[in-house]
Design brief:
This protein is α/β, with parallel strands linked by helices. It is built from 13 helices and 12 strands. The radius of gyration is 19 Å and the shape is globular.
Length: about 300
């Protein structure tokens, strides 16, 4: 029986991975790795097939106990952590020392082409340490509209980014969770490869705000600013320097890259079609237009 440890389990993607792994109903033991076990137990109270371990990306003394007797590690990068040598080198070495042999890493589309973003370095680190691996490389999250971009959308009906007219491919986090669960369950079939996971649409932010306006019935706007202004705007709003830099690069660099490739990996791996932007915005329209609602 495989023991699968899911990091970031109470976050947007981790929650979906846990949900879909549980839904697959395999005989693996699912271990939720979290900073607050009691809170996680409440969140996942509807699932009876989970066990829990204390784990914190920023506390190295939590690694060994969390990684003991684990077969497959689902690893993601918390948005605020970008110092790979400081955090991920000791984390992955602890995993190796404790017998973990297989890692499924949530990367990002295009990670292999850009050494600026931390995902690239983490991928190379996983390989150099000697893990069997699967790299899940999703495109741009639809859920950014209901998380990092939401406060400005609700306050000013505006999205401000340094992305110009660059096209982004849009994918639903639910789709990412589902495909990750299948890849984890069938690790040996898919191992030692990277899989782009994309939606079916490439749209720039001007097109997305126009679609939102049409569906929700409120006028939304997009404003493009230069990357330096955006970086300091984020810092001024309280975002940590490392996260502000990563946000800037992820939205600025696509201006100089070709339009994202659209992959059929989600369809081939799950046998389903990915969520459309129209369906997602319809699903989340009350969240977007109503500040007091929780997401």
């Amino acid at each position: 029986m495989n023991r699968i440890l899911i990091t970031g389990a109470t976050g947007n993607i981790g929650t979906e991975v846990v949900h879909y792994l549980s839904e697959l109903g395999n005989e693996s033991e699912l271990i939720v790795a979290v900073r607050n076990v009691e809170r996680a137990k409440i969140k996942f109270s509807y699932l009876s097939n989970l066990s829990y371990r204390l784990f914190d990306f920023e506390k190295q003394d939590s690694f060994d106990a969390a990684f003991k007797d684990v077969d497959i590690l689902f690893l993601l990068r918390p948005p605020h952590i970008s110092e790979v040598d400081k955090y991920f080198q000791p984390l992955l070495q602890s995993g190796k020392n404790n017998g973990i042999k297989k890692v499924v890493f949530l990367s990002v589309q295009g990670a292999e082409k850009s050494k600026v973003i931390p995902h690239n370095k983490i991928e190379r680190l996983i390989k150099s340490i000697g893990f069997k691996y699967i790299f899940v490389r999703p495109s741009y999250f639809m859920q950014n509209l209901t998380t990092t971009l939401l406060p400005e959308l609700q306050k000013n009906q505006t999205i401000t980014l340094p992305s110009g007219q660059a096209k982004f491919n849009w994918i639903d986090v639910k789709n990412i969770g589902e495909v990750s669960a299948v890849l984890i369950k069938s690790f040996d079939k898919y191992q030692n490869k990277a899989y782009d996971i994309t939606g079916l649409e490439n749209k720039n932010f001007q097109e997305v705000t126009e679609l939102m306006s049409e569906i929700i019935g409120t006028k939304f706007n997009f404003k493009s600013i230069n990357p330096i202004s955006f970086y300091f705007k984020k810092k001024k709003s309280g975002v940590k320097s490392e996260f502000a830099f990563v946000m800037t690069m992820l939205h600025f660099l696509p201006r100089f890259q070709k339009e994202p490739d659209i992959s059929d990996n989600f369809d081939r791996i799950t046998g389903k079609k990915p969520t459309t932007l129209k369906a997602f915005i319809n699903r989340k329209k009350e969240v977007i237009k109503t500040p007091q609602l929780c997401i």
